[in-house]
What does this fold into?
Amino acid sequence: MPLLNEHKSEDEKSFALRWYEVRNRVKNEFGQRPDINAMLFLIGINEVGIVKEKWEKEEKQDLMHVAVCKLFSSEGYFNFIGNDDEGWPEYEVVENIPKLVLKEQDELLKKKIVEYFETL
It folds into this structure.
């Protein structure tokens, strides 16, 4: 079983369990286990505070951008500057997020997503 992989450190095992629990929590709420993009979409909706039956493709991208800004504002990469006229959160770039290989990006996003959901 991958979670109990002997080659993983205790921190890796602990994080894998936390990630599983967060995804399971969302699955129980919405009926299907989400991937990273779905998690970002949900965080964006939560941050914007607007619920709609159908989102346009560009709006979905904007929601995911809001989520990334929110998640990485705690690391000092973005600064929340207020809401626009439509109520959407606005952020300014303080520092560029370092370039990472895809696997490292996924792991960092998962870490930030878990931290976000654990504070809700």
